[in-house]
Amino acid sequence: MNFFKIxxxxxxxxxxxxAFADNHDTTQNEDVNQISQEIQDDEEVPLNxxxxxxxxxxxxxxxxxxxxxxEDVMSLYNFKLAGLISGKDNSxxxxxxxxxxxxxxxxxxxxxxxxxxxxxxxxxxxxKDDKTYMMIDFNNLIRxxxxx
Length: 148
Hints:
The model is unreliable at about 55-60 (pLDDT under 50). The strands form 2 sheets. A 5-stranded antiparallel beta sheet has the order 4-5-6-7-8, with no helix packed on it. The protein has a 3-stranded antiparallel beta sheet with strand order 1-2-3, with no helix packed on it. By secondary structure, the chain is an alpha+beta fold. A hairpin with a 5-residue loop joins strand 6 and strand 7. Helix content is about 30%, strand content about 30%. The longest helix has about 40 residues, at about 1-40. The protein folds into 2 domains: about 1-45; about 65-145, SH3 type barrels, CATH 2.30.30.
C-alpha cells in the first residue's frame, strides 16, 4: 500500500512540475520575442561619435604639435599606449595606432626618430635626437621634458 502511495505522489509531482515548466517556458519565450521586437524597432546608432570630428580618437594632438609631426606615420602622437611589461631581463611596451595596428617595442628600439629608453609603472619614456624626452601614459597624454 505504501508503494502505491509513493508511486502516485511521485507521478503527480512529476507531471505537475513538467506542466509548470512548460508554462514558464512559454512566458519566457513571449518575453524574449517582445524584447527582440523592441530592439528591432530602435533606430540605428553609429559606431563612432559623429560629434568628435576627424581627431576624435587622437586626444593627445594639440596646437603645439607641428604639422610635420602630425603627418608622420611613426610619430608618437599617432599612437596610444596599450600595454607595458617590465621584467628583470627585458622590458616591452605595446603601442596601437588609430587603424588598430599593434607595435611592440623593447628598450633601445626606435619608433621613427625617437628611442625607447625607460619605463615606469604607468608611462613609457622616449629620447629624441636632441636629447629631450617624450613621455606617454595610459591616458594618452604625451609630455615633452628636458629630463625625466
